[in-house]
Structures are given as structure tokens and as C-alpha cells.
Amino acid sequence: MTVRGWLNERIPVSLEALKSAGNEPVPGHLKVWWFALGGTAAMLFFGQITTGLLLCVYYQPTPDRAWESVRYITGQVPFGWWFRSLHKWGANLMIVAVSLHLMRVFFTGAYRKPREANWMVGVTLFLLTLMLGFTGYSIVYEQLSFWGATVAANITEAVPLIGPGLARTLRGGEQIGAPTLSRFFILHAAVLPGLLLLLFAVHVTLIRLHGVTEFPLRDQPRPAPYPFIPDHVLKELATGLALITIVNCLAVLLPVGIGPPADPINTPEHIKPEWYFYFTFRWLKLSSLQAGIAGVSVAVALLFGWPFIDSAIRRKWPNSELSMVFGAAAVIVFVIFTVWEGLS
Amino acid sequence: MGEHSTMSESAEISGTETRASRRRVIQVAAWLSFVPAALMIAWDLLQYLVPPRRRATFRKVFVVRTPDLPAEDVHEMVDLTGRPLAIIRRAGGSPLAISLVCTHLGCRVHWQPKVRTFLCPCHMGIFDEQGRVLSGPPPSPLPQHRVSVEGENVFVHLPEI
Amino acid sequence: MKRAVVAALGFLFLGSLVAVTIIDASKHRETAGPRPAVIPADSKGCVDCHSRVTPLQVAQWSASKHGEQGIACLNCHGAKPDDPDRFMHHEARISALVTPKDCGGCHQPEAEGFSKSAHGQAKPGMEIHLVGGRPDPKTWPLPRVGVRNPDGSAGSCTTCHGRHRFELADARQPTVCETCHLSDGSAEAWRRSPHGGFFLTSASLESAKGPSCTVCHMASRTGAPTHDVSARVTWTVGSEGKPVQRPNAEARRDSMFSTCLLCHGSPLVEAAFDRIDETFEAGIPSRSPPPTAPYLRSPAAWPHLSPSDRAELAKMQGR
To answer: Strands, E, within chain C: which ranges?
Structure first.
């Protein structure tokens, strides 16, 4: 009795059947790298789960132990600095990948009917990713973590009607402290990743149900489909290896350090959020608090509802490329605001 | 002509073979990089997860001034992990620091001043004033900590956590 | 082709892993963070409340050697039933005044040396009065050096050693001595000398190129330093403002001589001492009379003094 036979008696599944079932042809345009961004984000996310779990082994979510435990990981545990740097750089790259994926989907019009629901799921995934970044950074409990969270809670307070209640829920009280850390930790380590996984499953299911958007590349004949196994699998493997090597190099060349511990009495001179929130920060500085919140809310609403706005536009003006113009303008504004805040 | 085709055929055949063997070489090379990489990751993970065995260090902790040591009774305190110990005045020598954790099953022993013994209430183990077993199930004497006396000051050396 | 790419990437990844391992191996792992203080049971209540009320003091104590060794609040602030400056504070009998006698309970040689020195002498009329067991604010907290404590000792260890960190490096800084001795010229004389000049060019006590105050006046070649800061001082400024020799001048001179030998050869020290003696015998002081802060000269500073005490004090202050 071979090993395979022994296993087959107990797990009655035919490998050949699986292989042929999974080996459906992949649309040819997926050979282009900027169609692989979603998969890149997913791979990075699974990397984050792994490194995040490892960090959980030593991290302690109370105000008097949090910073010290992160310092312990970074300075004392063998390879602690590595897993932490992998986690931090993985987060940065994941946000970049998700953003680029969003832009790709937008600019190829893949959000249009019948894929509006999936677009909205995708935008939710994008927002969840940003929230993961925010909560993750806050639980390090450095000065910038503490004061960044304070500023964020204060901004939330200014939301009309539900603001104060929302801020109190965020903080777990009237001030940032132990309840805040508990909440942020469970959000970061369990709730948000769980939601993300769930919505990710929905996202992939919808893609499989609808099929990948056929996308004729300009002036080129439609490329022929290619086999999933082994070509696409190898491609994914290569992408994964490239990703992990890049993250590794970043972790080695630019390892993550730790700033001074949170001091509720002393505000540092310059409070800045993480780079991916620079654009909202700059927008808030330009406008009043109310206008700032209104602006961000409008932007998020536009993002969610764009498929419907776009279809309304194209009903009125067929063949209009207004979406592209809007999209390009949004990207330009985002870049300008981010760089402006980054340089100031 | 026939020879040409035969030659090209054989060239084709050997070409295919070369391609196939080249692919095998590449495949082997790929595995040659994956296996060590996986092993290295596993080793790094183990080093990360398994806490290093630290050599025991001790901390000198102030106990009491010699005149303040009780004559009949013992001075009770806890070590750095919270386990109880007693400091006993000893005639003609420095005080003793004796752990109050019974060596049988870990119950807390109590000093009996009249008979100058330690009694364990769980299974009636009895230790003398130096921690040696007098009767009962305890298998070994009560552990002691190093004591140093500087002038009138008594210090005990407790294991660091 | 794809397989070749995968293989190449695999090796690249392996290479980056090797880099990670090399870097980790070369990491100089810092020693463990600060060890938590040991809080004995009887002082736990003090620490719990005072970490909110006086957090800096508790934090300093916690990080100090006292904290590490479990020498806590009541070991210094605890008062016996017959202590004159005792009072009840939340069911604990304590004293706010920790005097050299209290410190001398554990640090006996230091307290003894200190009490023999000029620092440990009380100026007439300067003492801490008690009102209901607590120090009268008119006579406390400043100054401590030169002031008699209710338990009979004089002065205070904390003037130089601070509280509650008690780091030796702090006490060894010349700026500590200068808080009093700048006004009488002795610290300035040191600053203007090669000793002070070279010390001040160096970055720290550890890399000092010249001696600071404690090196000459307290440190020892043979082991135990002395807290009798006057033991090696032969000359002082007399009541007429002129240099006079202290009692046991020979012994003092010899003591300072052997201290100078820590760095210098005896021919140089011998010659220097002779020159200095000549200057002093000619009546030229290197500093002014004993240090007195300006606020002490005002009669308002010591309202409780009797007229005869005031006259005595004025004479001591060279007025």
C-alpha cells in the first residue's frame, strides 16, 4: 500500500480531478503585471497575519507594558527586529498595493455594471486596510502613536450628532488610556483582519462568479488565454518570492526603530500621522474641522458610489471619459497633498 | 537529403533532450534554494519563539537592621516572584534566610516559636530552625538564600526574575 | 523560462535570508531594561499614593539603587516613637526630616566623616525648630548645611547627594559644590587653575582630564574615600579675612600631599605646597570668608535669633 493509496482511502479526493478542475484558462491580459496588484495585496496580507501573530507572542497591550514590549521585541528577542520590520514594511507595501489595485480597477472601468457590488466590497477592503494601519501604529504606544490617536479622536468628536459618542467609543472613555489600547489591539489583531478575510472571500467569489473582466489592450490583438497550472501558478510563485525578497531587503536596509514612549503630559512639537494619512491631514489643515470632515466624507461617499455616478454620466454623455478625468484629478490631488505634508 | 533530415531530426531530438535536461537542472536548482530557505526560516522562528535559558542572577535586597530582628519570632518577607521566606536570627552567626515553601508539595510552612520549628499544615511535615526535615513526608530540607551582613544591615540575595 | 525566473528569485530570497541571519548575529543585544524596584510590604501604601501625588520622587527612588535593593520609604522616613520630629501620616509614623544620623544608620563611615567636617558643623543660632512635630517653615527647608537638626546632628546628606536618586555621579559633579562655594571664591579659584581648566574641557566625569572637587577633597588612593571634606584642608579664612592654619595642620598637609601624589610627582607637589604656604603666610587669601548666601545676611532670614546670636552670626559672616 503506497502512502498515496493510504491517504486516498481516508481522504477520498482525486488529485487529477482537482488539477483539471483548477486548471481553467486564465485570460491573456493577466500576464501584464499591473493586473496582479490585487493578488499582491492578498499575499502581503497573509504575510501580515503571519508576522502579526509572531509579534503577538511578545506584545503586551497595556499602557505600562506596550512600549516596553515593543522595545523588547526590537532590541532583545532574536530576530524580533526582523519580524517587526517585515510587519511594518509589509503594511506599507500592502497599502501601496491596495491603492494601486484600486486605481487599476478604476482606470480600466472594471467597476461598471454588473460589478458595482464588488467595487463597493473592494472600497470597504481599502478602508479596512487603512484602519488596520492606523490601529497597528497606535498600539506601539510611542509619543506619535499616543498623540496621533488623540488627534484622530478629537477630529471624530467634531463629526455632527454622533461625533462625541463615536469618539468616546473609540477611546473607551474620555481620554486615551488602557481601555483605548485594549480596543485598538483587539480591532487590529482580530476584528479588522477577520472582517477583511470575510470580505476578501466575498470579493474573490464575486470575481469568480462574474469572471475576470476581459480587457482588450489598445491596438493589440486579444491575447490568448494561458493555463492556470503551471503557468499562472509559477507566475504567482514568482510574484510571491519577489515580494518577500523586496520586503526582506527593506527590513534589512531600513529596519524599524522605536521612538520615545507615550507621555500624556508632553505633546511633541510635530505630530504627524503615518504617510498614508498625509493627504487627509493636509486637507484638514487647509480647511476648518467641519469642512475637513465634510470633505473626507464626501470623498469616501464618491468613492463608494462611483459606479452609479459613472453610469449616470455615461447615460447623459455616452462615450464620455469624465470618469478618467475625475480619477486622474483625484490621484493628482492625493499626490500633491501627500508630498506637501511630507515635505512640511 | 535523407542524411540531412536525419541529422536535423537527431539535432531536434537532442535539442529536445537538452531542453528537458535544462529544465530539470533549473527545477533542481529551484529546490536547492527553497529547502535551505525553508530551513533557515524554521531555525529563525525557533530562535524567536524559544526563550533563552538565562544564567541565574541574584539581587541583593535589604531586609532589616540586626537589632530589629525579632528574637523569638522570624522576620517574614517575599522574594522577587512573591514566594515567602523567613529570616531567622542565629546565635553565633549571620541570620539564615529560609524559604517557606514546603519541599513536599509546595504548601506554605509556619514558624512555631515555642518549639522553634517550621510546620507544614498540609501533611504535617516538620522542619527544624535550619530547615532540616525532622518528620513527615518532605523529601528534602527547606532551601536557603545567601545572606550577607554589612555592619548592622542584613541583606538577602534573591534570584532575579 | 518561468521556472528559471522562479529559481533565480529563490536564490535571491535565500541571499536576503542569509543577510538577515548575518545582521542578527552581529546585533549587540542591549542589556535588559531597568530592573523593577522591590517594594517591601510596609512601604507599599506610601508608593501607591505617592506615585500619584509626588510621581517624580517615586520614579527617582524606583530607579535608584535603594529601590533596587528594597530600601524603601519607611527605611529612611520611618520615625521611632521617641523621635522629636515624628508625626502620624495615614497610620504611619514618619519624619519629613532625613538627617545624617538617619543616613548613618546604614552609611556609618560616611556620616561620621561628614559630622567631623565643616559641612557637619552647625552655625550658632541656626537650627530647625519644630512646631507640633513638623519643621517650622521659618527655619526649613533651606539651608541645611550649617543648620542643627532636631536629633542633634547638623547639615544634610541630601544637599550634595540630592533626592531621591542618590546617584554618585550627581554628587561628584563640581556644579554641586559650586552652589555654595562659588560665592566664596574657592570654586572660581579652581576654575581658573589648570585643574579646573582641564576638567572643564573634557566631556564627562569618566573622561576627565583634570580633577574635580571630590577627587582632591574626598577621594583616596588607598581605598576608602572620606566625607570629612576639611580633613585635607590646612588653611582657612580667619575672622579678620586673613588665611590662618586649622588645628592639626601637619596632619592635614600630609593628607593633601598624598592625595596630590595620585597624579603628580613629589618634587612638584613639594614645590607647589611651599609656594602656596608662602602666599598664605603673606596674608593673601585664595577665597573670601566662609560661604554665605546673600539672603542669609538679612536679619529677616532668622527672625527667631536672639540679639547675641545675631551678633555672633554677623561676626562669623565677616560683617
So the answer is: 87-89, 92-94, 130-131, 134-135, 235-237, 243-245
- Range with the poorest average pLDDT among A15-24, A150-159, C232-241: A15-24
pLDDT value, residue B15: 63
d(CA B97, CA B117): 14
Q: How many CA atoms lie within 13 A of C290 on its CB side?
A: 20
CB contact under 8 A, C69 and B77: no
In a shared domain, residues A344 and A256: no
Residues A257, A323, single domain; the answer is no
Are A167 and A226 in a shared domain? yes
**C55 to chain A: which residues are within 8 Å by CB?**
none
DSSP B67-127: GGS-SSS-EEEE-TTS-EEEEE--TTSPPEEEE-B-TTT-PBPEEETTTTEEEETTTTEEE
Of A54, A66, A201, the residue nearest A142 (C-alpha): A66
Residue C302 has pLDDT above 70, yes or no: no
In this predicted model, what pLDDT tens digit does every residue of C181-240 receive, in sequence order?
A: 877 778 888 888 889 888 888 877 777 788 889 989 998 766 668 899 888 889 887 777
Superfamily of domain B58-159: Rieske [2Fe-2S] iron-sulphur domain (2.102.10.10)
Whether C70 sits inside 8 A of B61 (CB atoms) is yes
Tell which residue, C172, C180, C184, C212, has the closest CA to residue C196.
C212
User: Could A245 and C12 be called an inter-chain contact, meaning their C-beta atoms sit closer than 8 Å?
Assistant: yes
pLDDT (tens digit per residue) in C251-289: 999 989 988 888 899 999 999 999 888 888 887 777 666
- ipTM of the complex, rounded to two decimals: 0.82
The CA distance from B87 to B94, in Å, is 10
- Verify that A250 and A325 share a domain, yes or no: no
Residue A329, pLDDT score: 94
Contact C237, C316 (CB under 8 A): no
Same-domain pairing of A260 and A279? no
Contact A74, A127 (CB under 8 A): no
Task: List CB contacts (< 8 A) between C30 and chain A.
Answer: 75-76
Q: Give the nearest chain C residue to A82 (CA atoms).
A: C20
